[in-house]
Amino acid sequence: MKKPLSLRFKKIRRCLAVRSAFKNGLHNHLLARFFARQGVSPKWYHRHRFQRAAVLLAAFLVVLSSGVTAYAYTSVHVTDGSALYPIKQTLENVEEKMQWSPERKATFYLKILDRRSSELTMLQNKNRLDQVDSVRASIQRIIIKLAGVQSQLDGREHGQLKQRIQRKLETLEHTID
Known about the structure:
The structure is a single chain. The chain is mainly α. It has 2 domains: 42 residues, no CATH class; 102 residues, no CATH class. Helices cover 77% and strands 0% of the residues. It contains 7 helices and no strands. The radius of gyration is 30 Å and the shape is elongated.
């Protein structure tokens, strides 16, 4: 009895397929010839398997670190004393350095004040009174920076921003107390 045509084709395909041992040997041989032509000896990290593993590991680390960084930066629950708090502080410091104009600095400080005030209310709701003082001190430092930037804003073109700053400072006085 004859085998079905699909089984015969599988057998033929298997017989004609290039073996992985041959592929690896050819790859190593080509690497050796390439490095011989260049006049250098191949290193252990030039192996194909290591390169693939290194790329996968690097991609995994990038995805993992970007996710952790994004969480640390945006989360209200990352406060002073948290393991991710230094990451949050570093990102905020870098972002602060990237603000060149007084308008952008003012909007940045307003955003940070919003974050700190939400952190403060979250800490007060959870009765973490030991961390409340450090958040209040952070808010005071940002208010001082914002006052310095507010004095740099001039004329009618920044009137709306000045009003926004004034409203935020008034609401913070009630929140901090």
